[in-house]
Design goal:
GMP synthase [glutamine-hydrolyzing], GMP synthase activity, EC 6.3.5.2, 11 helices, single chain, 317 residues, GMP biosynthesis, Rossmann fold, GMP Synthetase, Chain A, domain 3, four-stranded mixed beta sheet, binds xanthosine-5'-monophosphate, ligase
Length: 317
């Protein structure tokens, strides 16, 4: 009989055998996938594993704090915590093209990760939270390029000549969440909506600047607060704000305004390969809209994205 418990036991045995006395590194992102990977591998090989968390300055407010606190306070996981905000914003300076953004962020990540791994020395394996749908979507189709340059650690194994350990390769997200519960991870982290590696960088259409990040972050906090308050946060696959690269005319008091537009995206999905836009109650949308327009300076219009995947993707870039 296949249970989460036996899955963990089997994997722990297999990882121990494969790794022997070698060293493993793992990129912790704050999300459920990498957290589950870290927890399983830590259970197998203890402090032969080092996890590295890179703050790329493109995270949501408070995104990774609860899981970091858990690992620091409740486990003996070796954890290196790097703040690379300035570096990443520098890399993105003047960049507008979505694929160039993804590549710059991915390469930046590899550079920092490589430096840190170099300091550890003698690393042989890289652990990754690749899921089954990632395996499918990253495969090129009839020689064409994959849909998007996903996966922030894409080029890392080749560059560093590391062998991969991917214990979640055959699982879907809901199964990974069950695993997380079995491993005792905090519920907040387990039920966190997926968040892309390139972070808010691909939710700002056009150039990523500190000012635009600030507008998006404030809007995003409101979306999540209202989704949670209404009891909808766990009902949807993802719900978030996107900053558009246009300004529109509005009116405030007697004056004309000319400000940014925020798009709200919320989708239902099991595996992110297909998705449908969420039929959110108008009250929630109304509350999100009026709060963003009233509370976030520089935004005078909010729209709701009603496209499904395919043909639209979940993220806008
Ligand atoms: P798309 O936009 O391709 O997204 O429909 C499918 C799912 O993947 C997430 N996503 C990413 N996750 N690195 C990640 O770790 C990435 O580069 C990346 N791009 C998209 C997205 O949030 C959605 O859940």
């Amino acid at each position: 009989e296949w249970t989460m418990h036996s899955f963990i036991e089997q994997n722990v045995r297999a990882i121990k055998k494969k790794v022997g006395s070698d060293k493993v590194i793992c990129a912790l992102s704050g999300g459920v996938d990498s957290s589950v990977v870290a927890a399983i591998i830590h259970r197998a090989i203890g402090d032969q594993l080092t996890c590295i968390y890179v703050n790329n300055g493109l995270m949501r407010t408070g995104e990774s704090e609860s899981i970091m606190r858990f690992f620091k306070e409740k486990t003996k996981l070796k954890l290196i915590d790097i703040n690379a905000t300035d570096f990443f914003l520098g890399e993105l300076d003047g960049v507008e093209d979505p694929e160039v953004k993804r590549k710059r962020i991915g390469l930046g990540f590899i550079k920092i990760f490589e430096e840190e791994a170099g300091k550890i020395g003698g690393v042989k394996y890289l652990a990754q939270g690749t899921l089954y749908p990632d395996v499918i979507e990253s495969v090129s189709f009839r020689g064409e390029a994959p849909i998007k340059s996903h996966h922030n650690v894409g080029g890392l194994p080749e560059v560093m000549q590391l062998d991969l350990i991917e214990p979640l390769r055959e699982l879907f997200k809901d199964e990974v969440r069950e695993l997380g519960l079995e491993l005792g991870l905090p519920e907040e982290a387990i039920y966190r909506q997926p968040f892309p590696g390139p972070g808010l960088g691909i939710r700002i259409m056009g150039e990523v600047t500190a000012e635009r990040l600030n507008i998006l972050r404030q809007s995003d906090v409101i979306v999540l607060e209202e989704m949670r308050r209404a009891g909808w946060y766990r009902k949807v696959w993802q719900s978030f704000a996107v900053l558009l690269p246009i300004q529109t005319v509005g009116v405030m008091g007697d004056g004309r305004t000319y400000e940014h537009v925020i798009a709200i995206r919320s989708v239902d999905s099991r595996d992110a390969m297909t998705a449908d836009w969420s039929k959110l109650p108008y009250e929630i949308l109304g509350e999100i809209s009026s709060r963003i327009i009233n509370e976030v300076r520089g935004v005078n219009r909010v729209v709701y994205d009603i496209s499904s995947k395919p043909p639209a993707t979940i993220e806008w870039e």
